[in-house]
Specification:
This protein is mostly helical. The chain has helices at about 5-25, 40-85, 85-100, 105-115, 120-140, 145-155, 160-195, 200-210, 215-245.
Length: about 250
């Protein structure tokens, strides 16, 4: 099926879902207090946008900073750990253990140390995003075919050229996969920290809307955040296709 056909099926499926949701809410098959109809969500969008845009800007800025830090550390350390066998054998058990730790348990400690300020939300984003990026990059670098490195080294390639011409291009799919997952995790970390600590941002606004049982505006705020998240992930997919030519 061509792209036009796929797009039509996607639009049709979304329209069907919206109509079913509207009907279920109108017929009281679900409680409109908790699951308002899509028309009510759309009607509340204007009010939500006025409240949310400044907060969304704060949240996205903190997410961008935390994401950049997590990607820089995750990719750099991932390439180093993945390419040095002894270092990988020593450190990966600790990395896996920390990766398995529920990060939400660390949020109270972040707030205790940094207070109810923007750096706490940024650090929350870093912690949520860092480990997925690190684990995927380590796996991608570890799985580079040794014969490629051997051939390049035998042709006189320097260590920097080995990374630039062989290791990083071969591990690029894993690096980009880590970056895509890390972006979502960074946003989740920032939102959760804002909710927990009451830091100014979309997380705090969404918590207030939930506590006031304003479901329509909560759905609208959720949709607003989701749109920006989807656009960012699709942008990374486009970058993946572009860099695929460089590989």
């Amino acid at each position: 099926m061509d792209r036009v056909g796929v797009a039509r099926l996607q639009v049709a499926s979304l329209a069907t879902l919206a109509l079913a949701w509207e009907a279920a809410s109108r017929l009281r098959l679900v409680d409109p207090l908790f699951v308002p109809p899509p028309t009510a969500v759309v009607a509340s969008m204007g009010t939500v946008i006025q409240q949310a845009l400044p907060r969304l800007g704060d949240t996205l800025l903190k997410t961008a900073v935390g994401y950049a830090i997590a990607v820089g550390l995750g990719v750099g350390l991932g390439v180093l750990i993945g390419s040095v066998q002894t270092l990988r054998q020593v450190t990966m058990p600790y990395v896996v253990a920390l990766y398995s730790l529920p990060k939400i348990l660390v949020i109270p400690w972040i707030v205790l140390i940094l207070g109810v300020r923007a750096p706490a939300a940024i650090l929350g984003g870093v912690l949520f995003a860092f480990f997925p990026v690190l684990v995927l990059v380590v796996g991608g670098v570890r799985d580079v075919e040794p014969v490629l490195v051997t051939i390049a080294a035998s042709m006189g390639a320097s260590r920097w050229q080995l990374y630039q011409k062989v290791v990083i291009p071969a591990a690029l799919p894993a690096i980009l996969a880590g970056m895509r997952i890390g972006l979502v995790f960074a946003l989740v970390g920032v939102l959760l920290t804002e909710m927990f600590a009451g830091i100014r941002g979309m997380g705090f606004l969404m918590q207030q809307l939930a506590l006031s049982f304003n479901a329509a505006q909560l759905f609208a705020a959720t949709a607003l955040v989701s749109v920006f998240s989807i656009v960012a992930v699709l942008s990374l997919d486009a970058l993946n296709q572009h860099l695929g030519k460089w590989r």
